[in-house]
């Protein structure tokens, strides 16, 4: 399973990269706004900086909601770097745009996925990645991980090549359960990735090893 970090914050991206386990980055308009990145030139420059930092797939989202606008923005994004994956929302125009990008060898990430039906449409259009939003489904008292498992089963049965990118990850347990359910990729806040490190028995065990070593060597 690939690990992407879900942020536009360069420091956090650098920290995830330093761990040596990072395969890519995802962003969205909210994450860009959180970093105060505004204006087309600044947005494109920020994506370029991310591409220079990480050698992996970088999802950059279109803002346009109409087909022509998505194509224009997506082409500009794809020109930044070969690792850019154009992120397109699951709408009627979005599906048309994904098909157009697929036919023009531009890779895509179909975002805002909340149902298996949407996942089938995105795969049919040739999306490279599919982003079901686990946390937001859980917020509604449904089961985001169950959706990942359902899509994984459908994609296996049908032989779809689209990679399942579990998004809206909120906890380290989401990462573990997404892996169990068959996600190809998880995109997570840095805090959830670092949360995987934690176990009190690891801390207790290490303290004991160091204490025993000190005692034996003093
Ligand atoms: O990858 C999608 C993600 O950024 C959304 O996360 O926590 O806003 O639902 P969240």
Walk me through what this model shows.
By secondary structure, the protein is of the alpha/beta class. The chain has one domain: Aldolase class I (TIM Barrel), CATH 3.20.20.70. It is built from eleven helices and eight strands. Helix 4 packs across helix 5 and helix 5 (about 90-105) packs parallel to helix 6. The longest helix has 17 residues, at about 200-215. The N and C termini lie far apart (about 45 Å). The mean pLDDT is about 95. Bound molecules: SN-glycerol-3-phosphate. SN-glycerol-3-phosphate binds next to helix 7. SN-glycerol-3-phosphate binds near residues 26, 28, 135 and 136.
Count of helical regions: 11
Largest sheet at a glance? 8 strands, parallel, barrel
Number of separate strands: 8
For the record, the count of structural domains works out to 1
Would you tell me the structural class of the helices and strands? alpha/beta
The CATH homologous superfamily? Aldolase class I
- What are the secondary-structure elements, in order, as H or E? EHEHHEHEHEHEHHEHEHH
The order of strands across the largest sheet is: 1-2-3-4-5-6-7-8
Shape, per Cα inertia axes: globular
Low-confidence stretches: none
């Amino acid at each position: 399973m690939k690990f992407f970090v879900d942020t536009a914050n360069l420091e956090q991206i650098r920290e995830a990269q330093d761990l040596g386990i990072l395969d890519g980055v995802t962003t969205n308009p909210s994450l860009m706004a959180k970093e105060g990145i505004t204006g087309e030139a600044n947005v494109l420059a920020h994506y370029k900086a991310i591409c220079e930092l990480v050698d992996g797939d970088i999802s950059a989202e279109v803002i346009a909601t109409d087909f022509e606008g998505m194509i224009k923005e997506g082409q500009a994004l794809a020109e930044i770097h070969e690792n850019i994956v154009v992120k397109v929302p699951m709408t009627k125009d979005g599906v048309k745009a994904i098909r157009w990008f697929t036919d023009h060898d531009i890779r895509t990430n179909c975002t805002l996925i909340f149902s298996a039906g949407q996942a089938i449409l995105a795969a049919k259009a040739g999306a490279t990645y599919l982003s079901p939003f686990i946390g937001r489904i859980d917020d509604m008292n449904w089961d985001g991980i169950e959706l990942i498992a359902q899509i994984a089963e459908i994609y296996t049965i049908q032989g779809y090549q689209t990679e399942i990118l579990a998004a809206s990850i909120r906890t380290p347990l989401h990462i573990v359960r997404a892996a169990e359910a068959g996600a190809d990729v998880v995109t997570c806040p840095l805090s959830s990735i670092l949360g995987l490190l934690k176990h009190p028995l690891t801390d207790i065990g290490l303290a004991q090893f160091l204490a025993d070593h000190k005692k034996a060597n003093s």
